[in-house]
Amino acid sequence: MHARFTQQMMQRGKKALALAIASSLTIGQLAHAQEAQSVGEDDDVVEVIEVKGIADSYRNAIAEKKNASTIVDALSSTDLGALPDLSVAETLERITGVTGDRFKGNASEISIRGLGPFLGFSTVNGRAISSGSGNRSVAFSQFPSELVNGVVVYKAQQANLLEGGVSGTIDLKTIKPVDYGKERFQVEVRGNYNPYHAKFDDESGWGYRSSISYTNSFELEELGEIGFALGYAGVDSSTPEESYNTSSTLRNCNSNFALDGGSNCSFSDARAAANGGNAEDGDYYFIPNSFFYRQMKSEEDRDAAIAALQWRPTSDLDINIDGQWSNRFYFEDRHDLLWDDGRRRISNWSVNDENALQSYTGESRISSYGEYRVREEEYKGIGLNVDWQATDVLHINFDSAYTGTNRYQTRTYARFRGQRKFYDWQNSDGTQFPTVTNVYSDFNDPIGSAEDWTTDIQDMAYFNADSEARNYRLEVDDRISSYRLDADYALDTEFIYNVRAGLAISSHRNQNYQEERARLSTPSADRPAKLAAVIDNCLIDFPQDDYGDDGKPGFSSWATYDTHCAYDTLVGDADLSVDPKAPSGGDINLTEDISSLYLMADFSTEIGDITVDGNFGIRRVETDITAVGIRTSYTVETDANGFISFLANPDVETNVLNNSYTNNLKSLNLALGLSDETQLRFAIYDGLSRPDMWYYGAARDIGSVGADEEFTSVEAALENNVTALGNPFLEALESDNYDISLNYFLNEDTMFSAAVYYKQFNANFEVSSGIEPVVIDGVSYDVEVNGRVSIVDNESEINGYELTALHQFEAIEGLGISLNYNFANSDYETAEAGGNISSEVQERIEPANVAGLSKHNFSGQIYWENKLLSARLSYKYRSEYLKPFGPNLAQTNRIVDDTERVDFDFQYKITKNLRAKFQVLNLTNEPYVEQRVASEAYNRIEYSGRRLFVGFKYKL
């Protein structure tokens, strides 16, 4: 993949380098914050600068850098909903070292300093956030930027911070109405135009975003001050897609149908390509089981609300209640033109230096697939915080919270296959789709037997070989309850001036029900009638115009149908209903109880003219895991010869596994004031991250045992016969972390910052075995269980540096720039482990790095504003990174190609209260590209188009 990275840096990354050279600065960060606040409670008193525009927001960022004693980057606004981005994830991307995965045009799966989402931790108002994804990544889209007024990224750990982020902790902030201190009503409406959505015959291309909020506070004499804030945001948007894709299975082959014969391709020393030697030493190629072109319509309706109530009865007591709610309805209407038999009769193949196919001939059925996918997800969060200055020296804070997410997903599927045909396939450069250049019936006469296949696929009768219907259901329920108590005690001493102590308790319940599926293949005798019924009743015009304008697949449509209608036709009176909560070996039923205690001391002193501030402390964390799984229940039967059999019972048996472990996390933070303009910071700390929930399955698969195997004991029958479907004995991974940051503040509008960091951690996952109790017929046996996902005791390192520059030009009033760059490097290796790639070839494939690690990240902004208008042009670049296929460790490494994006936004102040807004996202219409195993082995090339927003914001 490194060759691919070099090529992309030369071809597409020139913008980033040119911008860096032209400015003579590498780097920058757009970060503005109103208060430096720990996930537990306030750490520093920070000068508050009211944000009125882009320039003032950067002043806020500089003030935060200068005044905070911890390594923190933040973006915030005084007003609710004043962050300029469309999502919190895009706001986070403007912080140095923070990157998002830009799938379907939207930023998600946030990585900090090159470490993937599974090594980060996210909170809202200092509380853990539930997730509907099965892992610990947070869907930031459920927190619209219109309802959030700040984000904080903690890049260093300290004892009073909730543990969970080796890479860092992201904390979202909502408004406190009494602290805000003003009455504010605002409403915003924006139209959203997507040119790709406008291609659809029944669509104009327009959607909308709307928000409304009201904040006020009052003085109630003897009752003190009370305030409230209410906000709502609604979205009706589209993320259509035109893409080329391959199946999840990839394998290596060296056979050539023209020379070796056979059907599906294979890998053998006997093939001609081996040249009489070992197959891995000869020529070979990587090939998927299938490939397809997708046309997809998708729409999202999301409603979200926040509420905050703050009551300050006295200056010593502050009570806050806040809540967040989000409901998301999302559907995808997919139509795929698919070559099902991707490995059949492969010949005439050519490859590049990394064995990625450049061209080949194959034989496959060409199929028309339809899938209608619906996902509904609801998030609820509520919290109570009581802040009490008990005495002049004692400060107490109590917090209680609940957060819950429920996700329900349905998939309705219909498939119609055509007859097998030979075809010629040609690879692309990654900006366009690979193409099928010819389809023909006679392998030995490709020209004479060529078919007008792009015309044939317009007729549904072409797909007459077979058909099938499927029904899928999935549900995830994730809930977290938490309590926290913190105390600060001020000391009258010269060095240590404050001591903090606290405890936190949480219970995390995750129920991830394995997706259930039912399928019905059409009997051969019924296929003609079923297809005729679909043609008569379900056929639709191709849903859009100008398919493939950017991808250039060589055709612009094919025969499509209403998926629900076709499904109903194929199913008829059959029952394909499924219950996602039906017991299944793949279900995750996890309870994670966490309790922690910490002790921390704040200190301040001077060494000559240098001020020294900071803190040191320790946090002790105890984690208790309870996982519940199912397995087949057996009765043991012994025959006359003394040989045993396992007889399966009709009911499943519950398997409960428990584990407990403890972590002690030490931390030291230092801030040195070298001069009024220069600061030097150090942080040394232990970090902790917990594996994703989907690894914690407790189900166990016990193979059948018959008398013919001649086992005379249960112990012997169980040997090498029990396979794990998860591992509740996984423990959190720790890291040793070292950070140095040097900041230079020329003035309130100019800052230069450089930071270096080093982390050492164990995060390599592999499949191993372990001893567990297994109950058979009421008797427990200690057995070695195979297939347990485990963290290998193999230390890895990551090191990197960050560069940031913020500057406003005096010569041109209102003109400014923000530049940032992050470099990350690691010796971590994610070895190729594709289950269908032979071990000899796996060893020759270059390992990938940490999931989510991009070696290079750059973002730059240039802006200009005055009293009436503001304009901003943004550029973001991210080099390639590994994106795993969920919890399956036997999948091939999937690499997301280098990505870049240009955005533009413009605002004009019409009156004191009314402002017009205009934005363009993905101005250059860059595709999203994935590769697997080898450079130019494309797994996905996707276009989703630009997005334009125009609207008005009224504020009173």
From TrEMBL:
InterPro entries: Beta-barrel_TonB_sf, Plug_dom, Plug_dom_sf, TonB_rcpt_bac. It is found in: Cell outer membrane. Keywords: Cell outer membrane, Membrane, Receptor, Signal. Transmembrane segments: none annotated. Residues 1-33 form the signal peptide. GO terms for cellular component: cell outer membrane. The keyword Coiled coil does not apply. It comes from the Bacteria. Residues 65-164 form the TonB-dependent receptor plug domain. Pfam families: Plug (PF07715). This is TonB-dependent receptor. The lineage of its organism: Bacteria, Pseudomonadati, Pseudomonadota, Gammaproteobacteria, Alteromonadales.
